[in-house]
Amino acid sequence: MKSVFARLASDFLSTIVFLVVYFATDNVLIATGVAIAGAIAQVVYARVKGQSLGYMTWASLGLVIVLGGATLFTNDPRFVLAKPAIGHIAIGAIMLKRGWMLRYLPPIVTETIPEYATLAGYAWAGLMFILAAGTIAVAATGDMKLWAFYVSVVLVGAKIAAFAIQYVAFRVLVGSRLRAAARA
After folding, report:
1. Sign of the four-CA dihedral 103, 132, 74, 12
2. So which residues are the signal peptide here (predicted)?
3. pLDDT (tens digit per residue) in 22-52
4. d(CA 163, CA 17)
5. CA nearest 116: which of 179, 161, 168?
């Protein structure tokens, strides 16, 4: 579990750095510049250490440089604020692959209710698209405080709530199936 959180922190380091610097300075341009420098430093550090970089790290670097550069060039924060939406769209598209979730679930779920696991995978894809649309809508306002709240509370909270709902639903569905099989 610790490695999962470390990987997520690594994948979203530039967004985390951006938020921390923005809250400390209340300056979008400084936060953007530091986020770009941090993303570049992260890649350089990993390469020096001989670590392989995942697709998300490279994609994040490209997005930070392009969207951060557009923010610095135009003095318009909406470019860099849209970055999380692009990530959510990409992840949602990947989640449209039938059965993607099955490899992440315990055998009792995959053997007992595989059709619900597949349906949940599509629901997660839909959630990613909805969260991306919300991110774009909030970014379009250019309101930094609203955006910071959205990415740090709403995005995280929606995923935690979805996970909790899925966990409870799977427990109920598996239990119901097993009881029905025992009666038959």
Report:
1. negative
2. none
3. 889 989 899 999 999 988 998 898 889 888 8
4. 26
5. 168
Show Cβ contacts of residue 27 under 8 Å, excluding neighbours closer than 6 positions: none
Q: Cα dist. 98→88, 94, 134 in Å?
A: 18, 9, 25
Buried b (16+ CB within 10 A) or exposed e, 49-60: eeeeeeebbeeb
Mean pLDDT for the stretch of residues 78-86: 87
Widest Cα–Cα separation across the chain: 68
In angstroms, rounded to a whole number, what is the distance separating the alpha carbons of residues 110 and 86?
30
Closest CA to 135 of 120, 148, 121: 148
